[in-house]
């Protein structure tokens, strides 16, 4: 069995989110760019939008809830975006951003449920096939579904036999619960080491739920101990600093958590934005 890691944690903003953000911003008209953009983020999407905006000379404001760690807020501000803390969870921040977008006619860059974002994240899938044509299984950390949706479409349109395995944490897996209920449902946002995978897929989800329903072959949940073990494994075996979300994919292989595992596997390491104190505590 060959297992390769796709290191999106080494992107300049520390996660894959830059791809979708850049693709979306490039699709805007000059008038839209002049007005600026807004986004709601638990961290990585905000960094992607902030960095892409600064490269293109577009003004950006990122809204986040009080649940988001302080270091993530500071990281986004350092990339040139204005950050505003709204509400106690991402749904409240999202509601506020929608109102601002409507009232001021400013584009709201959705973190996942947007065709340009999904296509941008799908470039990961194109690279997977190009660099490892023999791939028969991919394991993708899954939250709102933009990443797994884009990658799965890019892969299966060219190689339909590839198995796509979603992985999330046991504590508040929105897409998993939605697929189980056959429609988008809200889940309680709980504290987890994989906090990047938290938040709702949205009850008015337009794209990612249907893509996930059609295209995901298996969905695995991992507990907090396994996420911590994955963070340690990535560091000790590969000298990689990874956030909790990015530690989930390797655990599916290590502990044989899916019956769909093939012989040529790619685990997506989606990001490396973890607080140094937390990382040190887990490693030690």
From TrEMBL:
Keywords from the named record: Lyase, Pyridoxal phosphate
Pfam family, one: PALP
UniProt-listed InterPro entries: Ser/Thr_Dehydratase, Ser/Thr_deHydtase_PyrdxlP-BS, TrpB-like_PALP, TrpB-like_PALP_sf
Cofactor dependence: pyridoxal 5'-phosphate
Phylogenetic classification of the source organism: unclassified sequences, metagenomes, ecological metagenomes
Protein's recorded name: Tryptophan synthase beta chain-like PALP domain-containing protein
Alphabetized GO MF terms: L-serine ammonia-lyase activity; pyridoxal phosphate binding; threonine deaminase activity
Residue spans crossing the bilayer: none
Family classification: Belongs to the serine/threonine dehydratase family.
Single GO BP term: L-threonine catabolic process
Boundaries of every Tryptophan synthase beta chain-like PALP domain copy: 4-271
């Amino acid at each position: 069995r060959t297992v390769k890691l796709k290191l999106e944690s080494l992107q300049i903003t520390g996660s894959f989110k830059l791809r979708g953000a850049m693709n979306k911003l490039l699709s805007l008209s000059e008038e839209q760019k002049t007005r600026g953009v807004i986004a709601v983020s638990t961290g990585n999407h905000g960094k992607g939008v902030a960095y892409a905006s600064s490269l293109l000379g577009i003004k950006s404001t990122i809204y986040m809830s009080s649940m988001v760690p302080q270091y993530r807020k500071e990281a986004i501000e350092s990339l040139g975006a204005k950050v505003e803390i709204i509400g106690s969870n991402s749904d409240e921040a999202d509601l506020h951003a929608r109102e601002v977008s409507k009232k001021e006619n400013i584009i709201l860059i959705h973190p996942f449920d947007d065709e340009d974002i999904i296509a941008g994240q799908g470039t990961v899938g194109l690279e997977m096939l190009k660099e490892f044509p023999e791939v028969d299984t991919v394991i993708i950390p899954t939250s709102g579904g933009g990443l797994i949706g884009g990658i799965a479409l890019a892969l299966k349109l060219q190689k339909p036999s590839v198995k796509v395995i979603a992985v999330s944490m046991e504590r508040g897996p929105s897409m998993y619960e939605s697929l189980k209920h056959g429609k988008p449902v809200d889940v309680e946002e709980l504290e987890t080491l994989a906090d990047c995978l938290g938040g709702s897929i949205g009850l008015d989800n337009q794209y990612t739920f249907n893509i996930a329903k059609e295209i995901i072959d298996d969905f695995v949940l991992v507990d907090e101990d396994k996420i911590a073990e994955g963070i340690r494994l990535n560091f000790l075996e590969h000298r990689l600093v990874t956030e909790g979300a990015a530690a989930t994919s390797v655990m599916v292989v290590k502990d044989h958590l899916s019956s769909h595992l093939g012989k040529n596997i790619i685990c997506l390491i989606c990001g490396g934005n973890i607080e140094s104190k937390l990382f040190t505590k887990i490693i030690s």
